[in-house]
Amino acid sequence: MRRWNGWGDDTIDMPLGAGAQAFLAGRLGQGTRPQDASFEEACARLAPGRLAPHPLVDASPGARLLHALGQSLPDWLRLRHGRIDAAPDGVAYPESAEQVRELLAFAKEQGADVIPYGGGTSVAGHLGVHQTSRPTLSLDMRRMRALVWLDRESQLATFGAGVTGPDLEAQLRAHGYTLGHFPQSFEYSTLGGWIVTRSSGQQSLRYGRIEQLFAGGRVETPGGTLAIPTFPASSAGIDLREMVLGSEGRLGIVTEATVRVSRLPGHEAFHAVFFPDWERALAAVRELAQARLPLSMLRLSNAIETTTMLTLAGHARLVRLLGGWLALRGCGEGKCMLMIGASGAKAQAVPALRAALGIARRYRGVHAGRGLGERWRRNRYRSVYLRNAAWAQGYAIDTVETAVDWPRVTQAMEGIEGAARGALEAMGEKVHAYTHLSHLYPQGASVYSTFVFRLAGNYEADLARWRRLKDSVSTAIVAAGGTISHQHGVGVDHAPWLAAEKGEMGLGAMGALFRHFDPDGRMNPGKLVAP
Amino acid sequence: MRRWNGWGDDTIDMPLGAGAQAFLAGRLGQGTRPQDASFEEACARLAPGRLAPHPLVDASPGARLLHALGQSLPDWLRLRHGRIDAAPDGVAYPESAEQVRELLAFAKEQGADVIPYGGGTSVAGHLGVHQTSRPTLSLDMRRMRALVWLDRESQLATFGAGVTGPDLEAQLRAHGYTLGHFPQSFEYSTLGGWIVTRSSGQQSLRYGRIEQLFAGGRVETPGGTLAIPTFPASSAGIDLREMVLGSEGRLGIVTEATVRVSRLPGHEAFHAVFFPDWERALAAVRELAQARLPLSMLRLSNAIETTTMLTLAGHARLVRLLGGWLALRGCGEGKCMLMIGASGAKAQAVPALRAALGIARRYRGVHAGRGLGERWRRNRYRSVYLRNAAWAQGYAIDTVETAVDWPRVTQAMEGIEGAARGALEAMGEKVHAYTHLSHLYPQGASVYSTFVFRLAGNYEADLARWRRLKDSVSTAIVAAGGTISHQHGVGVDHAPWLAAEKGEMGLGAMGALFRHFDPDGRMNPGKLVAP
């Protein structure tokens, strides 16, 4: 069963080994195992729901609690400490666009806000109740999950927008197709959620971001239905898809989406390459990205992440052997690991990989074969479970990510890590920070940093630590000229930094769109653009 | 010097040979050579300008006339017949964003509309004066043409938005780069124009449409400056670039744009392949597009276009020899020509071309080598001059284009050509119609049809012929599920058909954006979305 106050399925654990525990204790001090609130305690604290009864609305405390929050660290703190101040007053599971329209009408009649709920995996605070002065209705889209239509000729597939990653891929695989959109949250996140948060998958190098995959669809808004037909391309005015992408629920409910699919790749392999240092690794990945080779993934870890990942992997002897082998080949202390994915027709994927390894060699890259790559592939959705394991040992894990043009990549990485390391100094706490470039473009890269710090053991103190850390690293992102998010979206957590990149005119334009589709301002208010 | 009432430079002529003249006369009847009005006559008919004097504004009749219209067929008719009912009251050539702001303030003070003017190549009526009850100021961007900044590391170049295609490429070539955006209008059209009309170049298969090339920039709007920073990608809310792309001057003046450039290709070649019939050709190009080979161009002419192009090319003996050679190889009467471009590093381009020819062979495609491809490359911007030559013989040439998903491609082509052929029947006139697929996508293709019909010799009758033809083919586009434009934009000519794809909610959303940036509605009113 899915955990109510942590990541993923409760039958899956990725416990930290003794080596990993010692590694964290050595860097941050011993953690204190926290006391989590129970589901029943948290339910009991909820104020009664205020919506009138409706046959489609479940107002039970359990349903309301399960839709109250997402997976951001402040959301976790609220869940773990049982401090859920507000939850939606009811949850509906519509099965059709007609029911969505009915529920929007019901919300209007009740003077209620509406929060669209996909997989509940937001790490930016997209799902919390905005203000408790009005009731809130959560629309859980899980029942709208069918493959409605597959056009093999155009390689287009239309799904109910509530379909999750595995469900979508399984329905496509039966016909020999894939969408190829694999964000870290893949196992729970939904097509509709990917669209409204402008999500990016791990293999976007081949398949594209969700912006490139989203071909059209239907959105039920308080003002009416927005139907977006599919065209291969168009110059007919402003692209309506781009009003939906990144709208974070502010203009309506995506009920159905048509996506561009591909034939299942005949060949797929992930290879690891190590570089002696960051400078060489960075130069190599820039050349790789700008060579536009038909690869499916490029993902570069900096030296601290490389060491951390190899340590947390837990096979001390193997890692030692690998380290010795790499050191002999010039990759010692500061070594950085690059993961290269090649997917597609063998006749294209194999030469692309060969060309990539050739470029890597010119920067003293050492090819370590497929073993680590295979391991990465097998565990690609498992590493999130480390959050649970670290929590159990008294540590919090959080991440931020941005994207910058090439000249700013190192500066952004160092700025973010430096800000994180110093953020809790005044509280006498350390932060272990490490980074990878998760997506590479000819223009630049995304910079994805992870932070581990000790829990204080009480809600206020933990939230204060997170707040200070988040403020520091977000300020560092803006200072480095980065976008406040490359793949997670804005929600409430990133909203204070949005003006830096959108400006007043840009924020106002987004507001004008929201008002057009949602004149009463009831769709996910408070998210993305503060009111 | 540039022609004031026709296409291009007045030292360049592409006269129709005897064979071409006979071809058209056989299909449409003999043309009557028209009597064109002179520049002086047209100037003399202009009403006096109504703007107060301003040091940056040229109110001379010559400047006003040269900015009155674009290159759509109704624009041509007005120019050729000397029937320019309305022209801007003054023309300014700003040299900086500051001057643009000053001119917007002047327009406000004068209660004037503002029409941004790039290269004047619009074929959809983007440049005409909307209503004569208010004065109009034309802002000609030609002086803002400098390469402001080149970031080699990120392959980004920032230009003044008024830079034309050749000027932009020359400035980049000096540094070893190319933008790779080559629309048919390349010689005169501008970067800013490409952006606001969502232009597509002939080699977009490699370089992308302008949507993919436009990384950021600055727009001066009546409401203030919209500055869009560059990121490789972002999930931070709605993409502001997408509000500018396709906005057709309705929200402001693009003063500066940053584009994604590439290193000049080491290798480039264009090859011709002939298929025995449309069905095989279509199946082949669909497979080619979906194989995602790193090619730079795929362009398929249907049988009528293939014959028409070979005939108009004028080398009767060569064409006969080619025809005989192809017939022996199974490509007779219904043969269709595919042009394949491969550009880039030789190590990628050559194998891609080889793979493409392999796919073509499976559909009985006959490789005719590089000769025709070279010829196409040399004449890529010359074929537009046929409009002038045909006019001189008493024929009008017009085009429409759309894009549809694969299952609708043939239906769209036949619908458009059929509608065109029947459009002037009631007037006792024939229309020669032919088509190519100009841009191929995994999802579908653009369908680009050309029409030739006889001129009546007077303005009203010619306009009536065009109106009937345009209505018929536009209705056919909508009936086939196509977008009303794949690469030309909307302007006034396509605006009546826009609601079919945007819906009321979509049109309203565009209007809400325009009002936000331009509360008084003075920016290019009447274009794109009718008021």
TrEMBL record, chains A, B:
InterPro entries: Alkyl-DHAP_Synthase, FAD-bd_oxidored_4_C, FAD-bd_PCMH, FAD-bd_PCMH-like_sf, FAD-bd_PCMH_sub1, FAD-bd_PCMH_sub2, FAD-linked_Oxase-like_C, Oxid_FAD_bind_N
One MF term in the entry's GO annotations: FAD binding
Record bears the keyword Ribonucleoprotein: no
UniProt keyword terms in alphabetical order: FAD, Flavoprotein
Matches recorded under Pfam families: FAD-oxidase_C, FAD_binding_4
Segments forming domain FAD-binding PCMH-type: 84-264
Cofactor: FAD
PROSITE patterns listed in its UniProt record: FAD_PCMH (PS51387)
Domain of life per record: Bacteria
GO biological process, one term: lipid biosynthetic process
Residues the record marks as site: Important for enzyme activity: 299
Active site: 448
Positions annotated to bind FAD: 116-122, 197-200, 248-254
Keyword Flavoprotein among record annotations: yes
Protein residues bound to substrate: 387
PANTHER family given in the database record: ALKYLDIHYDROXYACETONEPHOSPHATE SYNTHASE, PEROXISOMAL
Stated family: Belongs to the FAD-binding oxidoreductase/transferase type 4 family.
The protein's name in its UniProt record: FAD-binding oxidoreductase
